Amino acid sequence: MVKAIVFDSVEAPGAIRVGSQEEAKKKARQIVLNNNDKVILVGTGAWNLYSELAREMRINAENYYLLEAIDPREAELAGISWGRLLLSRIAYTARRPAEEAFSELGGAEKRVTRRALLRGTVIGTAMEYTERPIEDVTLCRHPAVEKYCEECLSVCNISGGCPVSAAICGIELLYLPGYTRSGLRDALRSIVPLGKPGYALIVPRSSIAALLESINKTKAPVVIVPVSCPYVIGLEELLALHAVGLQPVIIEAGWEREVKRCRESRAPYKDMVESDYVKVTSLRLLHSLDEVKVLIKGEPRVYSINNPSQYLSRGLRPLALAVLKKLGIAADLSTGFSSVLKIDTEKCTLCGACAYECPANALVVKEASDVSALLFLHDRCIACGYCEEICPENALSVSKAVNANLINTWTPLVLKESLRCIVCGEPLGAAAMIEKTIERLILKGHHPEKMPQLLMCESCKQKYSLGMISDDQVDYETLYRVVNRVRRRLGLSPLEPPRRKRQNSS
Ligand code: SF4
Ligand code: SF4
What we know:
By secondary structure, the chain is of the alpha/beta class. The chain has helices at 21-35, 46-59, 72-78, 82-95, 114-118, 151-154, 181-191, 205-214, 235-243, 255-258, 260-281, 289-295, 309-312, 316-327, 353-357, 386-390, 431-443, 458-465, 476-489, and strands at residues 2-6, 16-17, 38-42, 67-70, 198-204, 222-227, 246-250, 330-332, 339-343, 363-368, 371-377, 396-403, 410-420, 427-430.
């Protein structure tokens, strides 16, 4: 639950009203400690108050992630009504997974499967990362996790990664106490449309008070996006902000003094995001407050899209994709926004393992009449590379890239003949996969006549083993045709099917 505490005369319906900032601090701390509820401090100077209280709570090992703030000056900067901005901040705060900031779930002895993870189990979150990045790898490189894409780990050069890295997880499997993509989505939903193009200043919470003191009047709207760490923002967020008419600006001021080691560790990822952003938008990503002060006197440069609200209900990714489509970009990337898959169609047996394991449902095997196909949806792929790793035939390779031509289209990667049940004619699956099994059996010296079930659907297979289907109902000609195709490939002579009179399966 989110509770607002207002300490000055600003309108805040439903908020707890107190007489002074000191009282607001006391009340906020009480609510956090007693109820584990989130608290938004509301009033002029709220970010100063936030910084003081967060510092005190951090020293006392209390969950300061449950704190948030909003200052009426933010509404003036954004050029929108105070009510809309307040709603937006409430939505953002509600989504922050801050309650878990102190917990470490799924202890090392508990077996956590990748599948369970993909259903949303949290490996662990940590509160201390702002002072002490996690060196104990058991948090991220959880020993009980069978498989993981490692994208989060690959962007952090502290051994094993820190929980900050979790924010880049493409499917929001892992998340930060201070930020989620869905939180930003909800916040934007409350303020879009803005009326005219503006700037989104992504600012560490600890630096917002200073920022509000240093800028007052701006020509274009300025929306403040509070984050715990400015490096959690990836290409998806940056493009989504463009889509809604906001040129993104990441402000590091204040942050670098606070967490030197985190900053150093995140530098490679920051550089990767930045180079991807420049590649895609041809715009520079600004960081310093001085640069920002100059910039916001001018006109923002944005790649907005029509009616962004219709995409917002589905998340930030559709917005980012719409921008890419608009720009018509095809480029290799350093970060894992999406990928282009290359496949060796000869090697692929259409076994479907990649589609089964893909965490983003970007791959699917489809059967249509006598054809099986492996289809790929660029929009969903998060370039985790897991399909490449899992493919038993080494047929796939994943390159981090975006390609506007692939957006909104299921692209066929492989098309192959599929087989039907030799009793009832139901589609069975890709011939290549079944032939692979037949090949193994032949090499072990088995005779095809002994294995008609290989070409039967589940139902006919059961009936056949119970004796409910006689040999006369089985299409042995097709079985021998498939078997002989494999034998020829193996350099063996074809077998002659025995003469049988086949009856109708009905
Ligand atoms: S690419 Fe590999 S895992 Fe995917 S269907 Fe083909 S053979 Fe199976
Ligand atoms: S298609 Fe491959 S790289 Fe893309 S999300 Fe699925 S498993 Fe990961």
